[in-house]
Design goal:
25 strands, 498 residues
C-alpha cells in the first residue's frame, strides 16, 4: 500500500469516527505572549531549579524537561452542536418555520451534540494557549483544565486553518508557561518529548527522536487552499488527544506543536508530525496582534516534492539540491528581485532549503515587508539577492479580518436583473457555506438571499458588512429562497466561538 493511501485511510477514519486529532488525524508586557529570540525576561516557576536550560553533558535525564512541561500543558475539551439531515440532498429550506413540510420534502433534520478533546501549550502567564485549529474548530464551548485540576472557560482568540494552529485564552494570572526554543536548530536524531492528554488519559509524556524535518503531508489542504506544512517528524508516541500538545527538547523548551500521525488504523503506528515552533511563534503573534496571519509570499511556483522523474524531465527540472523555480509571478517579490524561471533556490537567510516544504517553512516565519536574503543558483553560478516579501495582493499592507469572515460563506451581490426577477431591491446571495463559521451552525442553505440585517435593508456585500461591523451579539438576518414565497429569518451570534 502506498504512503498516500495509508494517510487517506487515516483521514477517513478520523472523519467517520469523530476522533479529535486530525492527526489521528491531524492529530510588550511582562509575559511571553510575544516571545522572541534572545528574550531574557521572566523565567516561569515551572522551570525553577532546572539547569537543563544551560545545557549539560552525561546521560540524558528526561525528568527535568518533563517537570517543566507538564504544568504548562493543558487538557482542552470542546462542545459543538451540528444540525444534520437524515436525507440528502436537503430539499426543505423552511424546516424551522414549517417542520411538517419535512415529510413533504422527504427531509428531516436533527441536532447532534459533539464533544471532543485535545491538548494545548500555555505560552504566557496571563493565559494565552496555543493548540491545533482542528481541536477547537467549530466549538461552541471550550474548557481548559490544568494539570492541578483547575478548570477555566476559554475564548477563541483567532485561528489559522492553513497551518492548523489556533490561540485560545483563559482569564488567569501567574500560570506556568513554556519557553520557545528554535526549531531551525533541531537536529535529526536528537531526543524529544511529546506531552499531552491522549486517549482520555491524564498528562502523559512519551520520548522519541527527531526522525526527519521538512515533511509535507498535504493534510492541511483539507482546511485551506494555502496550506503551510513543514513538519518535524518524530517517533515519539502520539495518539488521539495529543493534538495541540507540545513537543519539547531535553532543555525543556518548546520546539513544536503536535498535529498529526500517519497510521492505517487511527492510532499511533510509529510516526508523528509536529508544527515547528519557529512557525508557531510567528503565527501566534500574528493571531494575537492582528486577528489573522500576515502571510508573506515569495511569488514563485515550484514543483511538488514527490514529482516523478518523467515529469521533471518534461518540465526541464533539475535536481540540484534546492527548490527549482518553475514560474515567477508578475507583481511578486521574486520578480522584483530578479529571480527567473530555472533558478534553483538553495538558502534563505543562510538557512539551507532542499525542498518545497523547507521553503514554505522558512517563508512562513516572516511577514510582508520583511527583507530576506535569498541564495540561488543560475547556470552553475551562485547568486545572492535581497528580497522584500509581499502579501497575496502584491503589497506590504497589513491584512485584517473582516466580520464577513466569521460567516464562513462565499457571498455575492445579487445582479440587478436577478433582483428584478425576485421582486427585491437587491441582496446578498450565499453561493456556498463552509463547514466552519457562523452560517454552518444554523439551518440555512446555499442560494439563500439576505435582504435585511437587524431590520436594515441589505442590497450588497458592502452594506451587509457595514451592518455586521456595527453589531454585537445576536444578529437577525432576513432573506428569501428564489422560487419560494415568503421571508425566512435566521439568527446568528457574532460573539460565538467561531
Amino acid at each position: 500500500m502506498k504512503w498516500k493511501q495509508i494517510l487517506a485511510i487515516v483521514l477517513i477514519s478520523a472523519a467517520t469516527t469523530g476522533v479529535t486529532m486530525w492527526g489521528v488525524n491531524h492529530l510588550s508586557h511582562d509575559t511571553y505572549v510575544y516571545q522572541k529570540e534572545g528574550d531574557t525576561g521572566k523565567i516561569p516557576a515551572n522551570y525553577a531549579g532546572f539547569n537543563g536550560l544551560a545545557g549539560g553533558s552525561g546521560p540524558v535525564d528526561f525528568s527535568p524537561a518533563a517537570d517543566a512541561a507538564i504544568p504548562a500543558t493543558v487538557h482542552i475539551k470542546t462542545k459543538a452542536t451540528r444540525t444534520v439531515s437524515n436525507n440528502l440532498p436537503r430539499n426543505n429550506p423552511f424546516g424551522d418555520l414549517f417542520p411538517d413540510l419535512d415529510d413533504f420534502f422527504g427531509d428531516k433534520y436533527r441536532s447532534i451534540p459533539q464533544m471532543a478533546s485535545g491538548s494545548g501549550a500555555i505560552i504566557s502567564e496571563d493565559g494565552y494557549i496555543v493548540t491545533n485549529n482542528h481541536v477547537v474548530d467549530g466549538a461552541d464551548d471550550i474548557t481548559v483544565t490544568l494539570t492541578n485540576k483547575k478548570s477555566f472557560k476559554a475564548k477563541l482568540v483567532a485561528a489559522d486553518p492553513s497551518s492548523d494552529l489556533a490561540v485560545i485564552k483563559v482569564e488567569a494570572k501567574g500560570l506556568p508557561f513554556l519557553l520557545y526554543g528554535n526549531s531551525d536548530e533541531v537536529k535529526v536524531g536528537q531526543w524529544v518529548l511529546a506531552v499531552g492528554y491522549p486517549l482520555t488519559l491524564e498528562t502523559t509524556v512519551t520520548a522519541g527522536i527527531v526522525s526527519a524535518k521538512g515533511r509535507t503531508l498535504e493534510i492541511n489542504r483539507r482546511q485551506s487552499d494555502t496550506p503551510v506544512e513543514s513538519f518535524i517528524q518524530t517517533d515519539a508516541a502520539v495518539n488521539p488527544g495529543n493534538s495541540g500538545g507540545p513537543l519539547i527538547a531535553t532543555d525543556g523548551k518548546l520546539i513544536g506543536i503536535n498535529s498529526a500521525i500517519a497510521s492505517p488504523t487511527g492510532a499511533y503506528a510509529g510516526y508523528s508530525f509536529t508544527i515547528p515552533v519557529n512557525i508557531v511563534k510567528k503565527i501566534v503573534s500574528d493571531l494575537i496582534k492582528f486577528g489573522t496571519v500576515q502571510r508573506a509570499y515569495l511569488g514563485i511556483e515550484y514543483p511538488r516534492d514527490n514529482l516523478s522523474e518523467e515529469d521533471k524531465k518534461q518540465n526541464g527540472i533539475k535536481d540540484d539540491g534546492g527548490v527549482f523555480v518553475m514560474t515567477v509571478r508578475e507583481g511578486g517579490a521574486a520578480i522584483a528581485a530578479g529571480i527567473k524561471k530555472g533558478d534553483v533556490i538553495t538558502k534563505i537567510n543562510n538557512v539551507p532549503v532542499v525542498s518545497g516544504a523547507d521553503l514554505i517553512g522558512q517563508i512562513a516565519t516572516y511577514r510582508p515587508g520583511d527583507k530576506i536574503t535569498l541564495t540561488y543558483q543560475r547556470a552553475g553560478k551562485e547568486y545572492t539577492s535581497t528580497i522584500t516579501l509581499k502579501n497575496k495582493t502584491g503589497n506590504t499592507d497589513i491584512v485584517k479580518n473582516s466580520v464577513l469572515d466569521k460567516l464562513g460563506a462565499d457571498l455575492e451581490n445579487v445582479s440587478k436583473d436577478d433582483a428584478k426577477e425576485m421582486g427585491i431591491k437587491g441582496g446578498v446571495i450565499i453561493k456556498s457555506i463552509s463547514n466552519r463559521g457562523l452560517l454552518s451552525k444554523v439551518r440555512i442553505q446555499d442560494g439563500y438571499v439576505i435582504t435585511k440585517a437587524n431590520g436594515k435593508d441589505v442590497t450588497s456585500v458592502d452594506e451587509l458588512k457595514k451592518v455586521l461591523e456595527g453589531a454585537t451579539g445576536s444578529v437577525k438576518l432576513e432573506g428569501i429562497y428564489p422560487g419560494y414565497d415568503g421571508v425566512y429569518p435566521i439568527v446568528i451570534n457574532l460573539d460565538g466561538a467561531q
